[in-house]
Task: structure prediction
Amino acid sequence: MLVEFALILPILVMFLFGVVSAGMAWNQNLALAQGARIGGRYAATLPTNGYASMDDYLDEVATRTVAAAEGNLDSAVAGRLVCVAYVSPSSLTLDKTRRRNETSSGVTRADSTCYSDGQASSERRVQVVVERSTTIETGVWSRTVTLHQQITYRYEVSNGL
Result:
């Protein structure tokens, strides 16, 4: 009985480490989804006319998204990506499609979307994409995975910029 237990124990410990590690990754993924949802909903209801530029508006949305992700998008997190975009059919100076992309190497901005969402080009909307890397370990092997969440919300404020 003791010999059988000694043979089974390493396998059982690896299995338990794997389950705990995968559970932690799942929890991080849920936090990313929560951050993306809160950031997207906030952007969809936040009037853009209170900001000097679209970049200021996107900075505010990104800050809210990171804060809502329960520390899973902090600046020290490996493989971190936060992309927020305001997508508009207009080409006015202040009311136009604009994207803010933040990684560990800094913030970039462009007049484009975060991703192709399949929506009509006449639809005004906001996009939020969040990513991070995490490692699942069993004690014998480990695997790094990328957790990814993206969401699109219809922009609901009627006055815009």
User: Anything to note?
Assistant: Residues 2-154 form one domain. The chain has a mean pLDDT of 93. The longest helix spans residues 2-45. The radius of gyration is 20 Å.
